[in-house]
Every structure is written in structure tokens, then in C-alpha cells.
Amino acid sequence: xxxVALIGNPNVGKTELFNRLTGLKQHVGNWPGxxxxxxxxxxxxxxxxxxxxxxxxTYSLTARAMDELIARNYIVEDKPDVVVDIVDxxxxxxxxxxxxxxxxxxxxxxxxxxxWDMVNERGIEIDVxxxxxxxxxxxxxxxxxxxxxxxxxxxxxxxxxxxxxxxRKIVIGYGDDLEALIKRVRDVIAKxxxxxxxxxxxxxxxxALEHDEEVLxxxxxxxxxxxxxxxxxxx
Amino acid sequence: xPDFDTGTGRxxxxxxxxxxxxxxLSGVIEVFGGAGMVPGDIFGGLAxxxxxxxxxTGVPGLLNGEHGGLSFLMGGLxxxxxxxxxxxxxxxxxxxxxIIGAAETLSISIRPEIWLFLVSLPLAYQxxxxxxxxxx
Amino acid sequence: MNEYSGEDLEVxxxxxxxxxxxxxxxxxxxxxxxxxxxxxxxxxxxxLHRVLGIxxxxxxxxxxxxxxxxxxxxxxxxxxxxxxxxxSLAGANISNPMLASFVAxxxxxxxxxxxxxxxxxxxxxFALAILxxxxxxxxxxxxxxRAMYKLGLHGRSFIPLITGFGCNIPAIMATRSIENENxxxxxxxVNPLMSCSAxxxxxxxxxxxxxxxxxVAGAAVFSMYVxxxxxxxxxxxxxxxxxxxxxxxxxxxxxPRYAVPGLKSVTLHMWERGKWFLIKAGTFIFAVVIVxxxxxxxxxxxxxxxxxxxxxxxxxxxxxxxxxxxxxxWNWQSAVAxxxxxxxxxxxxxxxxxxxxxxxxxxxxxLANAHWFTPLSGFAYMVFVLIYFPCVATIGVMLKExxxxxxxxxxxxxxxxxxxxxxxxxxIGHLAGLA
Lengths: 235, 136, 435
What we know:
The complex is a heterotrimer.
Chain A: E1 2-8, H1 14-22, E2 26-30, E3 37-45, E4 48-54, H2 66-78, E5 82-88, H3 92-104, E6 109-114, H4 116-121, E7 124-126, H5 128-135, E8 139-141, H6 150-162, H7 176-190, H8 193-198, H9 201-209, H10 213-220, H11 225-231
Parallel strand pairs in A: 1-4, 1-5, 5-6, 6-8
Antiparallel strand pairs in A: 2-3, 3-4
Chain B: H1 6-31, E1 34-35, E2 38-39, H2 42-57, H3 59-63, H4 67-99, H5 112-130
Antiparallel strand pairs in B: 1-2
Chain C: H1 6-28, E1 29-31, H2 39-47, H3 53-93, H4 97-115, H5 118-133, H6 136-150, H7 158-163, H8 168-174, H9 181-190, H10 200-210, H11 214-242, H12 263-297, H13 313-325, H14 332-341, H15 346-356, H16 361-370, H17 375-387, H18 392-401, H19 404-431
Helix pairs in contact in C: 3-4, 3-5, 3-11, 4-12, 4-15, 5-12, 8-18, 9-11, 10-11, 10-16, 10-17, 11-17, 12-15, 13-14, 14-15, 15-16, 17-19
């Protein structure tokens, strides 16, 4: 079975896509510990069973809002095979922020470029191949309202799930100054092999530098905490 | 440079004013207790004033052939349709009541919202022709 | 290397991400110069209009309730007819008198009186789903938020509030999208004032009993929803000025595109929300109604098998709490119904059913013949039901979201507000000579 998480900004057609993919085979429960609705559905594709989890719609993945934390924890803790990031093609600039955060999390991302019908109508031209190569992940144009592009999306999910362990070659850089800082923190964190195996060290480093409360809490339990603290600039 | 032909705009503006007056008159009767086929319905009457206001707000824009005028016309037409269809369905529900024997008499009330909706249809056709190329 | 302080970094990282995005946009995306005029632009121009926006929202809301009222009647009658048939069948075929009373007066009367509200509740959800799927509901939230922001309230609060029309519980959960904690607490505190669908049966029953014309009854129900919005906005304003001073966080709200709502998705929405009513009716409300029946038929000998309710436990209890409500002209039965309404507001109707021994629309007729309410006292009763106490399920969710003292505060202020507003309704009614 392949586990697939659906994520995206609010109002990008995520629910429609989820319904399209799963039909009425949905199960509604709660996220552990909180009363936020968790929708899980199933779908079959080429003999494989896909379990699709609908994550809360968010703009970002900080530890500040409950919705964002739920989505982020699911991706880092449960490690779904594929994370489908649904972006509104007519509002790409804003939507890509979440995409970048997902790439930072080193999730196995497939981008669904939704509302593709509107993109052309609005006079926007998106070079899908170029976008895909810049992000280093597959990009599939979709129209959730009509179901267009859904087969291609499922195919991309399947391929991505099979190539899960292949490392992504593209890393979106933060500029030399920040990269040096990231590397320094990352190298210290990487000494804690247990932690580094569980979470992407680069992500931990970036989040620690951003003073993310949840990540800092986790790093405090590390035997290397004093050393880590030494390389993070104080607030 | 107007967005559409001002001649068409003028005709639509006159039509919108006529509809606006129709809604105001019906609204006044509903607010002040009803008469004939028009029932007394305070909130319903106020809703008709809102529809009238929507139509009339669009008039200057229509006269200048601006998209903005078309907006109010379309908003008004949508509201006309909502209220018209609502009371047509209500007639159907009353009929169903009578058929299943829950109501002893068949009372059909053709409220002004219904005929105002019917009157608005030719205008809706005109707007549809103008916006055929427009996308969501 | 150490030129950045921690403070800077929190800003610099997002900045760099946006720079990276800008670079991607530059190479992969090209926007043709001429911007087309879309239906979304056309409709937003009128629906988000500074003056017309709110009146149009209220007019559409009015249409939604007229629709709910007018269309559901024949379907409710069908359910009612079948329940009446079931009840008389049970009454005639069960020889044990206690069991017969239990089935006919308890199960059929109590539950039947709640289940006739399946059609209005589902139709209301259907209409709201159309508004939501068409993209209009987000606009309604926007125009209300814009107005509320001017009053010093947080924008983005209104989406949770509008969700409250369905049920306060998901609405309170939806407040998690509000980042500022004070804004979130205020939105949760006022949420129970948004009239949820559980209160609809009470309004429909009462309005049908006290107003003979259906348009007037529909208007009375609509006025409950508007009153709920008005009270929510006013209470929020008072809390902002007293308990939580300070400026609300500025808001940005993204509006979805308009679309023609699809029948399948609208039906799915309706079902997802409506099924909770069915589940609740089958479990919780059923249990409450059975308790109400038991309390009204025991002690069995003294009440002669439920014939003399005046001698029952429930009457004893009712007479104790009745003085509280006497100024409003409500009898002990209505007071008891309010008490059970603490558990779930639909239980008010179920209790009336059990106390009157009538089921379905029969409750309507029995209540009208009993002359328990004048139009004024009945309207005040509706107002009271709107405002007093969030139901226990809502309290449960609030406890998860807020500190206990805020939950206690929510319970207290709604109760006090209910007494105040219902008294005002009575006073204004008396002054206007409606008594």
C-alpha cells in the first residue's frame, strides 16, 4: 500500500481533488490528541492501493498554528510515501511558499498544478517542464473540478513512490551566508545520529535557526544540545 | 473606450430602471401588509428593496458602457432568479402538501417575485449574449 | 558570519524563500499583458460592494430560510404521517400498559417529534452548501469581516461564525486558523450565539404555533438568525473593549473563484453535515427523550400510567424551576423543556412531544391547542432558546480549546444575556401593546 498525503493552501481545490480521487470511500476520524477532522480515503491504481490522507489546508508550516503543526507532524513523523502538494496555478507565487517548505522537509513531493484551465484563460503561461526541473519534483497540471489530469497525477504518484529512495538533486539555496550558517548547525546536529536518522538534519538546522519552538524542544533532548545552542545566534 | 456598445447599454439601463421600480412597488406593498396576490412580509419586502437598489446602482455604469454596470445588472438578475425560483418551488411544495392530504385546500400564491423574475429573463438573455466570452 | 541575530533570522529565511520563488517565477512563468475580465471580477464588484454587500448577504440569507421553510413542509408531513401510523399501531398491539406507553408516548412521540425536522435541517444544509460551493459564502464572510474589522474586531472570524449556522462544534474548531490567541478566544466565546441547526426545530415549532401565516413564521425564524449575528458582533465588541484590549491582527483573506455548484458535491456536503443530526437524534436525543418520558410517567401509580402528569417527578421538578421563568409567562412544562435543552437544543422539542403525548406535527397542534404561549411569550421563548447556554457537546469542545474559566464564563454570560434579551423582548412587546 502506498500512503499519499494531500496538502495545499486553503481554497485551491484540495477537497475536490480528494473527493475525485477517493469517491465515497472515505473515513472521517480525528487527528490524534486534537479534534481536527482527519479524512482518509482509498483508491486503486494499476493494482496498487493508495491510501490518501487529507491534511489541513495551510499557507505555511510553522509551529504557531494548530493546523500547520498537524500537517507538518504528519509528514515528519508518519513519513507518507508521497506528498501531493496542490497549488493554484493562477496564484503560483503565493502557493510555492508551501512547496518550498515541503521540499525543505525532504518530503517526496508531487506538485499538482491545479486550476490549469484557468491558468490559460487568465493569460498565464507556465512552462511545466521548466518548473519541474527548477523544483526537482514532478509537476502535473490538473483540473480538480472536471477530473482532468487525474490519471497523470496517479501515474506520477506511483512513479514517485517507486523512486522514493532516490535522492533529489536540486536543493533550493538560501544564499552563501545563510548556507554557511545552516551547514554549521547541520554538522553539529548530524552528530546525533539517532536524531539525524529520524528527521532531515538540514531541515532541523533551518528550523532551529528560525527559532521554531517545536524543533528546539526536540533538540533540547539531544546529548549535543549545548553544542547546538552554541552555533545558533541568540534572539 | 466603452466596454460594450452604449446603445445596448442605454436599453439595458432603461430595463434595469423598470425592474427596479417594479421591485420597489412590490416591496412597499409587502412591507405595508400586502394587498391582493401580494402577501404581507416585512423582511421579504426589504429584500425586494435590496434587489431594486442593486439594479439601480448599475444604471450609470450601463449608460457609459462600463463593465461595472454589467456587474450590478448581473447581481440583480441573480437575486431575481433566486427569489423567483424560490417561490416557484414553494408553489410546488404547496401542491405536494395538497396531494399527500396534509393541506385541505390548494392555495397557489403567485407572488410578485415570480413575475418580476419572468420579466427579468429577456434582460438575462441580453447579458448572457454580452458575457458569452467571459470565463470564470 | 555572526552578522545575523536570531531576531533577523526569523525574517531573513522567509525573505530568501520568496526570493527563490521570484527566481522560479521569472524563468518558468510568463503572464500575457492583457488581463481578462472574469465572472469572478464581475460578481465581486457587486457582492463585495461597500454599501450593497451586507444587504445582499441578508437578502440571500432570508431566501435560504424561506426556502427551508417552504420546501420542507410536505416532506415533514410525510415523516409525520408514517410516525403517527407507527405510534397507533404500537398503541393498539402492545398489551402491557407500561410498554405501550413507553413505545407510543416515549419513543414515537419523543423521537418522532425530533425526526420531523430531518427535512428542514437537510434542506438548510443543502442551501448553505450551494452558497458555499458557489464561492459566495466566502464573500459573505468577507463583507461581514470588513465591517467587523472597522468595529475593531478580528477579520477571519466570520467564517467560523458562519460555519456556526450548521453546528457550533466544527465552527469552534475552525477558529484554529486564527493565529492571534485573543482573537481566537473572542471568536469561540461568541460562537454559541450563532444559531445552529439544532435550534431550528424549536423555532419552527414555536413559530408555527404562535404565527398562523407561514411567511410571518419564516420571518420570525429568520429574525432569530439575524439576532444571533447581531448579538455575536455586539458581544465580541464588548469583550474586545473590556477583557481583551488591543488591536486585532490585520487580515488577508483569499477568496475562491465563483463556480456553478455541482449537485454531487452539494449533496455530499449536505449529507456529511446532516448525518450528525441523524446520529445525534438516534443516540443522545433518544436517551434524553426516554428520561423525559420516564420522569413524566413515574411514579406510575400516582400518574395513573402517565395520564396525570401533574403528579409526576418531572412536574415536581418543573414547579421548582418555574418561578424563574414566570415573568416571561412560561409554564412549568416549558421550563422543563429548557432544562433538557441544556443537553441538546433539539431536546426542547422532544420534551414537548413527551409531555404532550403527541408525535410529529401532532406536537404542533397539541401545543397550539394547549395555549401555553401567546405570540409575545412564544417569541421571547425562541429568543431565550437562541441565547441561553451552549449545548453540552459545544461545552465539551470549548473545554478542549479554552481554559476552564473561559468555558465557565461562556456558560454564564450566555445565560445572563438570555434573561436580559428575553426580558427586553417582553418589555418592548408590552410597550407596543402586543401582550
